[in-house]
Structure formats: C-alpha cells, structure tokens
Design goal:
The structure holds two protein chains of two kinds.
Chain A: E1 20-31, E2 34-45, E3 49-53, H1 60-67, E4 75-80, E5 83-84, H2 90-96, E6 98-100, H3 113-119, H4 129-134, H5 136-156, H6 172-186, E7 190-194, H7 202-217, E8 221-225, H8 229-235, E9 238-243, E10 246-251, H9 253-257, H10 260-267
Parallel strand pairs in A: 3-8, 3-9, 6-7, 7-8
Antiparallel strand pairs in A: 1-2, 1-4, 4-5, 9-10
Helix pairs in contact in A: 3-6, 5-6
Chain B: H1 6-34, H2 42-57, H3 80-103, H4 108-128, H5 130-133, H6 152-179, H7 181-191, H8 193-198, H9 203-229, H10 239-252, H11 257-273, H12 277-287, H13 295-300, H14 309-328, H15 337-340
The chains are: A alpha/beta, B mainly alpha.
C-alpha cells in the first residue's frame, strides 16, 4: 500500500524542498476498493500561497482530511516543519499549527460572531472549569487580550458590524469569512482553506482574495482548494493539480496552465 | 403549636422539592443546554447521590427493621451532613465519569439510548445489590440533620432555607462557569464538534467534564433529597424523574440557568396540582346549577376512585405541558431562540 515512500517524484526534487513548511509525501487513502488519494506528493513553501486544483472527485477534500487528521492515511507521510503529523487526531494537528476551513462552513450557529472568534483563541485559563471559578483576575486579563484580537481580526475581515449577531444569521460568504477569522484566531503556521470563494458573491470574492493576499504579505502560509482557474492563476505562487487521486502537475501557475495533461484533465481529452 | 397548617405546610413541601428539582435541572442543563449532550439517564446520578448519602449516614443494620445492608458509616448529625452531601456529589460525579467514559463519544440520540440503558442497568443494580442498598426495602432511617432540636414545622422551614441556599450557590457557581471561556468551550462543542476539533479543542475531554459537572450537581441533589425525606427507596428513582427534569429544562429554556430553576418550580407545582383535581371537580360540580349537573360526568365520567389516579394524572399533566411548550414556545420561557434553534440537531 505504501509503495510511494520516496519523496523523489520529480515535483519536489529540488533544493527548495527542504524549506517546505508542509510536505505531503506519497499519501494514500482508500475507502474499501476505492483509492481516493493515490500517492500524492507535493510541498508547500513557507510564506507562499499554494492552490490545489483538480476536477470534481480528484481527491482534494479527502487529501485535506488526511492532512488534518480527520482521516487516517493508509500510506505515506505528512510533515509539518519536518515532523510527521499523519495519524495524529484533528485536535493535535490543529495544536501543531494547521488551521483549516470546511467546504460547507461549520460555524457555531447558536453563538455570536464574537463568541465564534474568541472560541478559537489558544491557551485560555478560563477554559478549565477550576480556572474559570478560581482565577477571575487572570481570566479578565486574558479575555481582554482575546477580545482585542477578535476586534482586530473582525475589522480586518470587515465583519466588525456583525460582531454581536448570531452566526446563524450570516450569509454563506460571511460564514466563510467567519471561518477564516476563527482560523486566524487559532494563529496557525499554515492556513488550509477548502474552496474559500465557492458560492460567495463576486464582490465579496474579491474582498476575500484581497484579504488572503494581505495575510500572505504578512508572512502567512496558505494552501487552498479552488475550482475557478482564474482565481488560482491570479492569486497563487504555486499550483498543484490533482486528478484521479494523483498529482498531475505542480509548479508556477503559468507553467501548469500550459501543461497538456492539465488541459486534458480539465477539458476532457480534447485533441489539439 | 403548629407553625404550619394545611396550605402552608403543603407549599413548604412543594418549594423544597422545587429546590431539589431546580438542582437536577441545573445539572441536566449543563449536559443538554450548554453542551448538547442528550443525557436520558439523569435519574441515575440523582439516585447515586441519594444512596451515597444514605450509606454514609445510616445507623447500624441491627437497629433497623428489614435491614440487609452491610455497609454503613453512621456519621453523626449535624456534622456528618456536609460530609454526606460531599459524598453524594462525589459519587454522582464518579458515576457520570464512568458512564461518560464509555458513552460520551456517541453523538445525539445514540448517547440518549446509551445513557437511558445505563440508567436502567444502574437501577437494577440498586434493587439487587441488597448488601449495599438494602434492595427494594430501601434505606429508611436516613437521619434528618438538626431534626432533634427543632419541632417538625421548624425543621421543615429550616430545611427549605437550606435547600434554597444550596440552589442559589449552585446557580451562582454555574453562572460564573458558563459566562467564563469554559461556557464558550461547551457551547462550541455543542454547535459543531468537527469545527471545535479543528480549532485545537479536545472535544471528548470537554464533553466528559460537562458530564461530570452535571452528574455532581445531580448527585448533590440526591443527597439533599435523601436527608429531606429520610428514606431512599429504589421506586423513587424511575425514568419519570429524568423526563420531569427535561420538561422543566425545556419549559424554562435550555441553555439558561435562570430558566432551569424557574422551569423546575413550575413543573413541580404543576405535578403537585394534580392532587387537587378531585377537589376541583367536586367544587365545580357543587357550584353548578342543578340543570347542568349532568355536564361534567357526561364529559369526563365520574372520577375514578382508586389510589393510582392522581399519580397517573401527573404523566398527563407533564405531557400536556411538554406539548404546549414545544408547540408554542420551543425556546422556553428564558431561552434564546437564536441560540437553541439548532440544539440537538445532527451536524451537517
């Protein structure tokens, strides 16, 4: 099953490979007889924006779930900062520094936007029952800190006017922004977004992409799944193309765009 | 001199039971209202606490008729009282921990089935392990703390004051907990476990903590109950208790501690009101003019004159109350509709 032990698959065989923050190395995931992810390998450079594209059913979301510990991998390795993280629980993967969103946003609907955001802050004394009862001073200080960060982040995402609304009342696009905001509160090393602009209205899409680029300018590493070729080509430093559970191509957008195999996968084998 | 007569005595009794149910409802509200855990075995924690209190304070079996229990501590009152209540809370918490350890990973109605079944098993254990619980005879000599120095009425009032104080303190502690980041953590786990996990929270640990806290409160309520009645019998700890507590919580409003307390008092009052059905029937009948005297018997028939009539009516009253709340005010009296609209739903 784990025949893909070698990282030398032509995609990441250069010297830059050692600088990758996230390394996906021959990851395999099977569901019964179906091989959803079949030996995918690529790297995500620190402080880059990497797009993960591919037709429906290519295994992109499954791969996300493999990286974040939702699924156990059947082979291969996932490394963050050189340390293997495959096989860890989603909780532990998140604590190691991988933040993610979902294709269908999983906001806390019965909580306000502010509560949603503050939830994600790490190392809260007040999250322990005894801490909550016995250390009001510490909690007040920490909470002031957390709320200040919430305010900053909401302002950055232009959600500040909705801070006290319940998440159940948000539009689809606003929910995606809120999920991104929560991930920012987690303050991870890498941000993984599953179709961040799908189903979001065009003006909000541009906003969201601008936010992502600004985050990247501030040194954030971003890996995102996207269907829209234009979005990927305009916003990514590097593109990874998946097809039938495998890495079809990877590299800078302009090179990948002209790759025959990619065109074929997307356009369904048009002869040229 | 009788301090309390008729009505007053009845109201004091109802208020004391109201306080005990208030505690139970606060406990369940931690599980369901704040964490979304469908616990259908709440009565088990209540029973565990009551039996723990009984065991640590019962006198030696040689002094009690029909005694077959082999474990007793005979802690002297009143100093043994706080120890007994602490033991009740502890045992309730331990039972919740054990049940939680096996079941808390289950979602929604699977947890409901598991907790319901485990509560049934626990109830069977109480009936059958007579060396510990005195079986179906029950523990009928649980001391009433301070009873020796007071008249019956004074003691009733003093115990009501104590029960009310316990309820108040529990309420304040819980308010502090749920308004701290801990409450936010519980709610997030309630709303989406998957999201909570990907934000680095250990959801199983959170659910277990919630389970233990609610179990401790229910166990404590059991201790207060045991020393109030002076007897602990398996027949008191039936699933009906769990459903009554659910009715109280939903009536008051899930995820609201104020609602839990108010709901508990209302439901207990409603239940107790059933004992006046016969009185009400006779009163209406006696005030109706002769021409209409056939109306009530025609509508309802003559009221059955057997002892199980009133207890059975309690189920009907609770059922009607339940239906009215769900139909006309699903968020309850103090619940926030925006907060609890998705409560108990499965995640998408």
């Amino acid at each position: 099953m784990s025949s893909n032990q070698s990282p030398a698959d032509g995609n990441s065989g250069d010297a830059a490979a050692s600088a990758d923050l996230l390394e996906v190395d021959g990851v395999v995931k099977q569901f019964g007889g179906l091989v959803a992810v079949d030996g995918v390998s690529f790297g995500v450079e620190e402080a880059s924006i990497t797009g993960l594209i591919g037709p429906n059913g290519a295994g992109k979301s499954t791969l996300f779930n493999c990286i974040t510990g939702v699924y156990d991998v059947d082979g291969g390795a996932v490394r963050l900062d050189g340390e293997e993280i495959q096989g860890l629980s989603p909780t532990k993967v998140a604590r190691r520094g991988v933040g993610r969103t979902f294709q269908t946003p999983k906001t806390f609907r019965g909580m306000t936007v502010r509560e949603n955001m503050a939830f994600a802050a790490r190392h809260q004394t007040g999250e322990r029952a005894l801490g909550a009862l016995l250390r009001p001073g510490t909690i007040r200080e920490e909470e002031a800190d957390v709320q200040a960060r919430v305010d900053d982040t909401l302002e950055f995402l232009e959600l500040d006017h909705l801070a006290d609304d319940y998440a159940s009342g948000l539009s689809g696009g606003q929910r995606k922004l809120l999920e991104l905001g929560r991930v920012l509160m987690l303050d991870p090393e890498i941000i993984m977004l599953d179709e961040p602009v799908a189903g979001v209205n065009p003006s909000l899409t541009d906003d969201l992409l601008a936010r992502l680029r600004e985050l990247n300018d501030r040194g954030r590493t971003i890996l995102f799944i996207e269907h829209d070729m234009d979005v990927v080509m305009e916003n990514c430093d590097r593109v990874v193309v998946m097809h039938n559970g495998q890495t079809l191509a990877s590299g800078p957008p302009d090179i990948v765009q002209d790759d025959e195999r990619v065109v074929e996968a997307y356009l369904g084998g048009v002869d040229r | 001199m009788a301090l309390l007569t008729g009505w007053a005595s009845f109201l004091v009794a109802v208020a004391t039971i109201g306080c005990i149910y208030g505690l139970l409802t606060l406990g369940l509200n931690v599980h369901y209202g704040y964490t979304g855990l469908l616990n259908f075995g709440h009565v088990a924690f209540f029973a565990a606490g009551a039996y723990a209190s009984a065991i640590v304070t019962m006198p030696p079996p040689s002094t009690v008729t029909n005694a077959s229990y082999e474990l007793w501590l005979n802690l002297p009152m009143p100093l043994g009282f706080p120890v007994s209540l602490a033991a009740a809370a502890l045992v309730g918490g331990v039972l919740a921990f054990l049940i939680g350890l096996t079941s808390v990973r289950l979602g929604t109605h699977y947890l409901a089935i598991a907790t319901f079944a485990l509560a049934g098993v626990f109830s069977d254990v109480l009936v059958n392990e007579a060396w510990l619980t005195n079986g179906s005879f029950g523990m009928n000599s649980v001391p009433k703390p301070g009873r020796a120095g007071l008249t019956a009425d004074e003691w009733q009032l003093a115990y009501l004051a104590f029960a009310a104080l316990s309820l108040l303190v529990t309420y304040l502690v819980l308010e502090r907990l749920v308004n701290a980041p801990f409450g936010r953590l519980l709610k997030g786990v309630r709303e989406s476990e998957a999201a909570a996990k990907t934000l680095g929270k250990d959801t199983n640990a959170v659910k277990l903590k919630s389970f233990v806290i609610g179990g401790m409160i229910a166990g404590f309520a059991g201790g207060v109950y045991a020393h109030y009645l002076g007897s602990v019998v398996t027949a008191q700890f039936v699933p009906h208790v769990t459903f009554t507590v659910y009715a109280a919580m939903l009536l008051g409003g899930a995820a609201s501690n104020t609602g839990a307390v108010v709901g508990a008092f209302l439901v207990v009052a409603f239940e107790e009101s059933t004992r006046f059905i016969t009185t009400l029937y006779n009163w209406i009948q006696s005030t109706l003019p002769d021409a209409l005297s056939g109306v009530l018997p025609a509508l309802f028939g003559p009221l059955p004159n057997n002892p199980s009539f009133i207890p059975s009516m309690r189920f009907v009253v609770i059922g009607v109350l339940f239906v009215l709340v769900i139909r006309y005010r699903p968020e309850g009296l103090f619940g926030d509709p925006a907060e609890i609209q998705a409560l108990g739903e499965e995640e998408d």
